[in-house]
Amino acid sequence: MDTQFKKLQDEYKQVPIPEELDLIVNRALRKSRKKRIPSKWLAGVSAAALLFVIGINTSTTVANAFSAIPGVESIVKVLTFKEYKIDEPNYNADVKVPAITNLDNKALELELNERYLKENKQLYDQFQTEIEELKKNGGGHLGLDTGYEVKTDNDQLLSIGRYVVNTVGSSSTTMKYDTIDKMNQLLLNLPMLFKDDRYMSVISDNIKEQMRAQMKADANKIYWISTEKNDVPTEEFMSIKKDQNFYINNEGKLVISFDKYEVAPGYMGITEFIIPTDVLADVLVSHHYVK
Questions:
Q1: Which residue of 100, 106, 199, 234 has the lowest C-beta tally within 10 Å?
Q2: What is the Cα–Cα distance from 189 to 271, expressed in whole angstroms?
Q3: Which of 184, 161, 163 has its CA nearest to residue 247?
Q4: What single string gives the DSSP state of each residue in 252-279?
């Protein structure tokens, strides 16, 4: 294991809590005493629940992160744990590592946060290696931008999307999603939402319908599927993968996501399709998550 990465892991597990953060949480608790706060939640407001703060280097950042909180019920679930940066004339990197906090399932919280740290550290190290190779061969231009977006955050679910943008002349963009059942403290995957593998064809057929409808309505939209008017210039989209990228939005709708170039030309970027719940009715295990 990389020595620097092992050091970061150890720091993550042993980080002390800044006094400023204790003050912020206590202030929020005082403001919320008139409201009923579950004892289970209060137990979670602890050093263990707040380990993510190692990457937050100033009290100003901490204060800003919590400034919009009217009470402890809405405490922030995702913050930047660590950030790696390179800012040179031809080489630019901004690698933000997210961390999830306040889960009762500390094993899941640690598993996700260590994965986020490991993946981003590998991207950063690889980027540095590529810079050195380019410099040896006369130089060039290289960019890396990673970060995250909270797509859903309600009483039941937290969905976080983590993007990676690589720039070498043109750019490529990928996105990975994690959707967490906050009530039952578990990480969801696509197959567990459905009775059997039929969901793959049901969802794929609906996506193709949406693609054709969008192309008919807007000449600027192109997807790699056959129509009466066009021949597909590359490999045709036939079906989603069993573990296709997805999240569940705040309205309880299933959203299927494709990376840049996966089902369309690069200018279309990352593409998403909201799947109507009535289309899924016969294959869903239940409507507990998808409504």
A1: 234
A2: 19
A3: 161
A4: S-EEEEE-TTTSS-GGG-SEEEEEPHHH
